[in-house]
Specification:
The complex is a heterodimer of chains A (807) and B (146).
Chain A: H1 26-30, E1 46-52, E2 58-64, H2 66-70, E3 74-78, H3 80-86, E4 110-111, E5 117-123, H4 126-135, E6 137-142, H5 149-152, E7 168-176, H6 179-184, E8 188-196, E9 208-214, E10 219-224, H7 229-239, E11 247-251, H8 265-278, E12 282-285, H9 288-293, E13 300-309, E14 315-325, H10 335-338, E15 352-360, H11 375-393, H12 397-404, E16 413-414, E17 420-421, H13 426-436, H14 439-451, E18 455-469, E19 487-494, E20 500-504, H15 513-525, E21 532-534, E22 538-539, H16 556-583, E23 590-593, E24 596-599, E25 605-607, H17 608-616, E26 631-637, E27 653-667, E28 674-684, H18 691-710, E29 742-746, H19 767-778, H20 793-806
Parallel strand pairs in A: 1-12, 10-11, 14-15, 20-21, 28-29
Antiparallel strand pairs in A: 1-5, 2-4, 2-6, 3-5, 7-15, 8-13, 9-10, 9-12, 11-22, 13-14, 16-17, 18-27, 19-20, 19-26, 23-24, 24-25, 27-28
Helix pairs in contact in A: 11-12, 11-19, 15-16, 16-17, 18-19
Chain B: E1 2-9, H1 13-20, H2 23-27, E2 33-40, E3 43-52, E4 55-69, E5 73-82, E6 85-97, E7 103-115, H3 116-120, H4 122-145
Antiparallel strand pairs in B: 1-7, 2-3, 3-4, 4-5, 5-6, 6-7
């Protein structure tokens, strides 16, 4: 195990926090006992299938559903006409003119990507619904598609959204420090063009909705697996012609999300409209091809980068023009094009940065806030740039990184864009990861192996995982956006038998919230996690929520736990008041232990159930002024400020976990295939509530990153057809493709959170950086420069051949 | 996808023209024809079974003969959908006399495929499409000579 680096004492009672107890959710999930949307059955329920566009770009001239309607078993069909009746366009967060962009749950007038829903059918079973889709006649007038951000900006490019008048939906220049001076003082300027490819998350469970409209009460219950439905409620409420007070949203167990399950609000509305039209409950379960085709890709980005550097490798400043290909609709965009602002200088100390940011629509699937949303692209760009700085100056990339890293004593550190990095020791983390792969030994062997014709390379990178986001950053996209900050709500009660129950407004989909909440609460009440029941799933009528509730942006250990701690303390205080009255003591003389409240240092105690009995039934014996019951709500708010709109600075996130990765790869020059010989990760997410849960996140995210670097890519044909539309072509890895990963941990508590915790799980696609560096290092005798984040054998093979031709 | 080819038919040009300008004759050469509905002399609907690899299904095509310049030039344009896919096909035929009294047919075809077959079968698509289009013209020749 790693030596824990404790920069200060952890100011909490820590019997259970920090202990790797078994996940409470694990048994039911791994034994098939979980309850997912697809497990929900409602009497009379219908099954839906969606007809999707075969064209990337086409006008819809006519939709004829008459044959499909006649198919026995078909109950309702929804097309653009119904959607226009039920919906206003979704609100957009961009400034004019792109705010005019029209987006609905289904294509209206035009299809803008292959796979866009055109019609939805509800039938007595799924097969009939699918057959009915085949019977719907849609007459299209194909239009030329635009599939590349740079092409989309040309004056004669086809327009994806005519009402906007341009494919450039957002453009902004951010200028920090004195970039011109930095470039004037540079010994050398390094220029690069880089491309970050499209990949996505691949949750076991695809999108799913059951919509159930109850005519009697007028209540519409939407069962779904959206990972932040109450944030999406703003979009649903503003566009759906249905009373929001009668919408109830339930998320049961969710089988993974990775950010892709944020955009399913379009499906939540579409299936609701289908249920309203059918007058019966409707279930829709997406299939894998639909999932891969219909968006939820990560932001594809092209970077034109220039770095001003000194001969010794010191980075003075960076200029980057970025083009984000956000696909056919904005949905959550252009936030992904902005989120570099959370990690503007990455782990580095340079102060001068100019970002010229462009978000562009194309006829590809819409992008989603995929794991590491908007930060991974930027951090990968910085890693590529710093490594090229080193190579072009004839220096060791590792040395240049260490030279430019922010020092631990500089923490908390304010970045050029105004973000405050809370804590961390990047140098130690990277050095430790390098030790774990025996960096020095490989470095010595490398030359010899090159001479033998073996291309071995070493790569190392450190990415931050910025967590607990400040929504006010979207005001830098458009000053009028009415959101800011970050907040969470938790409700907690002790029942009349003395049992503790917690309900948190989150939508966990693999993060073990039931486990970590019970650990934190157990410490507050002096009980065990088994004594704390955390209400599973989410129900908007049961769990307290705010407009920020959900599970996203690496933050539950901060925001969710902040709300839980607040509620726990509030409940504890009330219990202590009643117990003090019963024990004829002062509240501050009491301690909570083993299900009882004790007068410290004595054998006088009352059991929780005795206190609860007073609170719920024996209320005349309650102390004066104490309300009956033991039920509290607490809302937590992050200590953020609004952005400085002039300087375009904002403290965009509260905590900064980080991971340092180091790896050794061998490239086969005959085939271009990369084999990972060794892989090590050093993780620091502050105080881990449950180290086993953190370990799971580290392994999962490392696998995600290796897959992105070497296997997974959404590839489009020149007609805009998605070619990697099944797992035959979209190469989702198995354990056979992923090497053993060595993991070690450091603990640098966050000074900004009560328990010293930081969010974790997202900013962790570090393999993109480490593997790109390792391949470039392996092929350095050939002078190959890695400029794409995705490096399958074919690309490497071509680069090797081209390099050999040059020689 | 673009394909083209040329072949010689042992039949006079007028006979070739008369043959290929009849929908029934052309339709017979479509792959696995299930149903034919002639709406006009230059307009017909055909249901065919086709596919790529394991992705096979029924397609409903609508064909129109365009730009008819007897007996030298014709275009056949078709749009088909089915199996979650669409096919847009544009073909052009040019006929010329051969010294031996036969006819030379030069053909071109542009096919655009979208949806399931395009995304799942892409790697096999070009070969499969070439085969279908090639068979179509080979079948015309066979019928004319047979």
């Amino acid at each position: 195990m790693a030596e824990a680096i404790l920069s200060k004492e952890i100011p909490v009672l820590r019997k259970w926090v920090g202990t790797p107890i078994k996940a409470k959710e694990a048994l039911r999930l791994i034994t098939g006992g979980g309850r997912f949307v697809d497990d929900i059955k409602i009497p009379g329920m219908l099954y839906a299938a969606l007809l999707r566009s075969p064209y990337a770009h086409a006008k819809i001239k006519r939709i004829d559903t008459s044959k499909a309607e006649k198919l026995p078993g078909v109950v309702a069909i929804v097309t653009q006409e119904d959607v226009l009746k039920w919906c206003k366009p979704y609100p957009q967060i961009v400034p004019p003119p792109a705010d005019k962009l029209l987006d609905y749950p289904i294509a209206v007038g035009k299809v803008r990507f292959a796979g866009e829903p055109v019609a939805a059918v509800a039938a007595t079973d799924r097969a009939i619904a699918e057959d009915a889709c085949e019977l719907i006649e849609v007459e299209y007038e194909p239009l030329p598609p635009v599939l590349d951000a740079e092409e989309a900006l040309k004056p004669d490019a086809p327009l994806v959204h005519e009402e906007v008048g341009t494919n450039l939906v957002w453009h902004e220049v951010f200028d920090y420090g004195d970039v011109d001076k930095a470039f004037a003082e540079a010994d050398k300027v390094i220029s690069l063009k880089l491309h970050h490819h499209r990949y996505g998350g691949a949750p076991t469970e695809t999108h799913a909705v059951v919509a159930d409209y109850d005519k009697g009460t007028g209540v519409l219950t939407i069962y779904c697996n959206n990972q932040m439905p109450m944030f999406c409620m703003a979009l649903i409420g503003l566009s759906f012609n249905f009373p929001t007070d009668k919408i109830r949203i339930i998320t049961p167990d969710i089988g993974g999300g990775f950010g892709s399950k944020i955009l399913s609000y379009t499906y939540m509305m579409l299936i609701s409209i289908l249920a309203l039209k059918a007058g019966r409950a409707v279930k829709w379960m997406e299939d894998r091809r639909e999932y891969l085709a219909a968006g939820t890709h990560c932001n594809e980005a092209t970077f034109y980068v220039e770095a001003a550097v000194k001969k010794d490798g010191t980075i003075l400043g960076i200029k980057a023009r970025t083009l984000h290909d956000v696909g056919a609709y904005l949905r959550y965009e252009p936030v992904g094009a902005l989120l570099w602002i959370q990690v503007s200088s990455g782990p580095y100390r340079f102060k001068n940065l100019r970002m010229d940011v462009n978000a562009v629509v194309t006829n590809k699937g819409p992008v989603a806030p995929i794991r590491g949303y908007g930060r991974i692209q930027h951090l990968w760009m910085l890693e590529r740039t710093v490594e090229q700085v080193a190579r072009q100056l004839g220096l060791d990339p590792v040395e240049v990184k260490l030279k430019n890293y922010i020092r631990p004593e500089e923490m908390p550190y304010v970045t050029p864009s105004g973000a405050t990095y809370d804590s961390g020791d990047y140098l130690t983390a990277l050095k430790k990861a390098l030790q774990m792969i025996k960096y020095e030994e490989w470095k010595k062997k490398q030359k010899e192996l090159w001479e033998q014709g073996r291309y071995i390379g070493i790569g190392a990178a450190l990415f931050q995982d910025s967590g607990t986001n400040n929504f006010a950053q979207v005001r830098l996209i458009y000053k009028n956006n009415p959101f800011s900050g970050q907040s969470r709500m938790a409700e907690m009660w002790m029942d009349e038998f003395g049992r503790i129950i917690v309900a948190v407004g989150s939508n966990p989909h693999g993060q073990c919230h039931e486990t970590v909440v019970s650990q934190v609460v157990a410490d507050v009440f002096g009980v065990t996690p088994d004594d704390v029941f955390v209400v599973p799933g989410f129900d908007s009528w049961v769990h307290g929520w705010t407009g920020h509730s959900g599970s996203y942006a690496s933050q539950f250990a901060v925001s969710g736990i902040g709300a839980v701690l607040g509620a726990a303390k509030r409940l504890r205080e009330k219990i202590a008041t009643i117990a003090a009255h019963m024990l004829k003591a002062k509240p501050e003389e009491l301690e909570f232990k083993d299900g009882k409240v004790w007068v410290k240092g004595t054998d006088r105690a009352v059991a929780f159930w005795q206190v609860a009995n007073l609170a719920y039934r024996n209320v005349l014996e309650l102390p004066e002024g104490v309300e009956p019951g033991l039920r509290v709500i607490y809302s937590w708010k992050a200590p953020f400020k609004l952005p400085d709109l002039e300087k375009k600075t904002v403290n965009a996130t509260l905590t900064y976990s980080y991971q340092a990765h180091a790896c050794v790869v061998e490239v086969d020059p005959e085939t271009g295939k990369v084999k990972i010989l060794d892989y090590a990760v050093v993780d620091d997410c502050g105080v881990p509530i449950n180290p086993a849960v953190v370990e799971g996140q580290v392994h999962g995210s490392t696998m995600n990153g290796i897959a992105a670097a070497l296997f997974e890519e959404y590839v489009y044909s020149k007609d805009g057809q998605l070619l990697s539309s099944t797992f035959m072509d979209y190469l989702f890895p198995t354990t056979l493709e992923i090497p053993d990963i060595k993991v070690d941990h450091m603990i640098t508590p966050s000074p900004f959170t009560e328990l010293g915790t930081k969010g974790v799980g997202e900013g962790s696609l570090v393999p993109l950086g480490a593997i790109a560096g390792a391949i470039e290092d392996a092929l350095s005798p050939l002078g190959v420069v890695i400029t794409d984040s995705h490096n399958p054998p074919e690309r490497i093979y071509r680069m090797i051949r081209e390099a050999q031709k040059r020689k | 996808m673009h394909f083209e080819g040329t072949f010689d038919i042992k039949a006079p040009r007028q006979k070739v023209w008369e043959f290929i300008s009849v929908p029934n004759n052309v339709a017979k050469c479509l792959p696995d024809l299930q149903k034919l509905e002639v709406l006009a002399a230059d307009h017909f609907k055909a249901t065919v079974k086709a596919g790529v690899g394991f992705v096979k299904g029924t397609f409903n095509f609508e064909f129109r003969m365009l730009d008819m310049q007897p007996p030298t030039h014709a275009k056949l344009s078709g749009h088909g959908s089915g199996t979650g896919s669409t096919v847009d096909l544009d073909t052009a035929i040019d006929l010329s006399d051969l010294p031996d009294g036969g006819t030379r047919m030069a053909w071109k075809a542009d096919a655009k495929v979208g949806g399931l077959i395009a995304s799942v079968g892409q790697r096999l698509l070009e070969g499969a499409a070439q085969k279908i289009v090639g068979n179509l013209f080979a079948c015309l020749k066979k019928q004319l000579e047979g």
